[in-house]
Amino acid sequence: MLRKAGAGGTLAAMGGLAGCSGGGGGGGEETEGEMTEGEMTEGEMTEGDGGSTGSSGGVTLRMWLSYITEGGGKREGTEEILTEYENESGNTIEITGVPYTDVVSQFRSARAAGDVPHMVEVMTRPGVLTGGAGRVINDLFQSMELSDAATEVVMDGHRVWGAQSTGEAGNLVSLPLGLRPFVHCYNTQHLEAAGVAKEDVRGEALDFSDANDSAVADIYASLRDWGGPDGVDSYFPDTTGMKQSDEEYMSAYIPMFGGSEAGMVTIEGDEQAIDTDAGRAAVEWQFENIENGNFHENSINHGDEESTTLHQGENITNNSIQDSTDLWANYRTETPGAFADLDGDLEEGTWTWTVPYRADSQAFISWLPSLGFIDDADWNQDRLDAAGDMIDFWVADPDNALFNAQELGFVPVDPSQIQSVDFYSSTQSHVEFWQEACQGFLENTVPTTIPAVPGANAITYQIPRRMHQRAAQGIQQGMSIEDAVDDAVVTAGEEINSVLEEQGVR
Length: 506
Description:
The protein has helices at about 35-40, 75-90, 105-110, 140, 145-150, 150-165, 190-195, 215-225, 250-255, 275-290, 305-310, 325-335, 380-395, 400-410, 415-420, 430-445, 455-475, 480-500; strands spanning about 10-15, 60-65, 90-95, 120, 175, 180, 185, 205, 320, 350-355, 365, 370-375, 445-450.
């Protein structure tokens, strides 16, 4: 039974700033997107202290969400479900849309002004929880229904963030809204044209990391030989991401080769993890796949937005750098004909999905859509209880969690729902996406994530970008991939350690 707090309430939903269509987002300089004084007042909360009592006797909670700025009905659906919570609880939830690229700068400004929200979506910016900003919520979590519903696969990344941001293992400073695994999305018409059976892709956990001798390598070779559909210029089987705003892919590739599950730093968060055998192997693998034609020749400038545009334009067959939210929620809006089977018009759609995989490490990235609790906010026990109630209502309750899957593409925190709730098997596309790819990810893959350490923005986005640029320049100047990558990762490791030293972590 969910804890209740009365009846009534109103939702003040702010924001609506345009965000990227992709699921990651934004790794520009930390000053990028800093708001002017006028912008700071746009979307200000209706009650300045952020915690005043609601009109019906409940409490007010302020929350920043980034995913609602991405379009596709995400804000409207979130407003609807939170309004239902308000009506049942008597509490008021005020949400502000802050694009992923602006979270760091806006949070710094808010903290300096002493006017922080109670919770911030920290999926791509867990570094905002460092420096004492994150509130330890172990006791709250244990009192919630969420503690019984969420599996350890879902919670592991949050425990890493808690340990990194507070310096103490076992701490939690964030709670999940679901999971956004990166699954691979193939164009089935391309597969058929290239003579690749859909069954060779669908539902399989294929070894994505082997560019030369694996099922994926054979599929990509067939696609290269086919050469792409008529009338499409610049065809490649896939692409990778090296654009600064999407450099989180290194947090997938490094652990895929046996490295740290926190990507560019160790799990403890006190040492770089790119100047390692796994780090070198991951970057070499990227450039080798560009060289052999598996990845797009312009991958140095690609991120999830570019990969999705190429995918929907039929310039690539597999989109390997996009997460479940965009592959389900956004793709349904952007390519409705490819999902015609959802309306019963076709037996199967254009897209099919599979699990990224490496036989030994079994690791690949998954976004952690989550709410970080901000210690500087004006918490009291009533507000903490209300926050727990809201998340239990929104995430732990199976009926409401279904909204997150249907409209947001979030894998539920209780993955058993994928087999027990009719929605997840209602069409062939549902079966292939939810029951095969997403469930397969949870069963076969170790979810990894970006780090929650001081300087995380530079470590996750800026330093990897410079690393890729240095390696690409060395290759263009005639260096071997191995030598160019070696030079680049040595420098990147030194830069990361310098950031950690400056922040007092090392």
